[in-house]
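JOB MANIFEST
job_type = single_chain_structure
chain_count = 1
residues = 129
[input]
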Amino acid sequence: MQVSKAFRCTLPGLRDDQVSNLRRWADLHCAQSSVFKGDVGNVVLVGLKDELRTSASFARTVRTALHRMAINAPLRGRWCTLITAREVLAVASAGATTVGRRGAGMDPCAADPAEDDAGGDNVRVVALR
């Protein structure tokens, strides 16, 4: 069972008002997030949470949020996948929070999802006061 702190959801055919509601939800519930238009008119939500979770757990969370916002999107197949925290930070720092095509070519299978979450030697802890 793979776990990660980061996820990517591909949501088919959302209207602009639904995208803005989704962006607002992501800003409130994710440590780092980005919402943008994908390749085929799909909306892509990339998010980073503070706890390790499975893909099914992220899918339940997003599905519940969509239901509460009255967004009825047909979610079938692998619409929610795990990615690395590094990918989320790269997309968010590139300015993909506006609806555009930036980050649309991001491959969710490009890196191992547990790579950034394993706590290797490249982890830097910053104390905030």
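[summary]
The chain has one domain: 1-129.
The two ends are 36 Å apart (CA to CA).
exit_status = 0
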